[in-house]
Predict the 3D structure of the following.
Amino acid sequence: MKNTSLADSYLSLVDALSAVHQLSELDLEGIPETVLLQQSLFALVKHQDLENCALFLVRDERLVCAAATQKTGPLQSSPKMLGKDDLAGVSFPLGEGIIGAAFTTGTIQHCSDCISDERFKMLRDAGLFPDAGSLIAIPVKSGESVLGVLNVVHLIPGYFEYWHEHFLMLYGNCMGRFLHNHRLLHNLEEMITQRTVELEHALTESEDLRQRYQRLSTTDDLTGLHNRRYFFVEGEAMLARALRDKTAISLLLVDIDYFKRINDTWGHAIGDRVLRLIADALRIQARAGDMIARLGGEEFVLL
């Protein structure tokens, strides 16, 4: 009997170490917090003779059930993870029941008989662990900060031994550190993503401004034709090509007679409209490859 007990203890220790090892192998990158919590609970129940477990995290001054497992019958080899809809609304005040005691004191809480222990009633009323015989509530810590409470139950009253408490306390601390690191990592990723979006937005605005100023530097704002600066740069290039290819090139200067009378008689707004109408008429007559520009005032040029 003594040898059997020693062998059982050894196997339990191996299972405990396997659970911690599987927890340490979890990848923190690229997975949401909910998946991390579910994988953590699955690693625990996979390697331990436990019925169910649930993790409560602090949110809005309450302990909210963030992940939980549930066995549907004695023939089920391993518990299933409860879905988001199953956990909706399962939360308690920070100091209520056995979970609240584990959170506020930062120490492990042991319920050896869930049927008679009033501290367990809140969990039973919430529909969690209806067949529980015994329960351990372990504070999930990161340093001195309590992030939540891990609850582990078994059907048999008084099932948990002293070594269970030590192992589960270790597991809760590991979960707390992993959860803390996951949040730091994903907060950093969100910050990088936000800064990247802001940088891309700034670069887009900068490019828009560059194109706008480039247009303003080469385009007459009133008529939409090329301006004097553009004409002398591009006109010189057109002339050079004509000389190189020995092709004809024509230059037409257009000056509006008595334009000052238009401004003096009907005002500058009408004068601007006349300039735009003349620009449109020249634009209609131009061919592909021709260049039209406004040299200034009422003077236009076609090349």
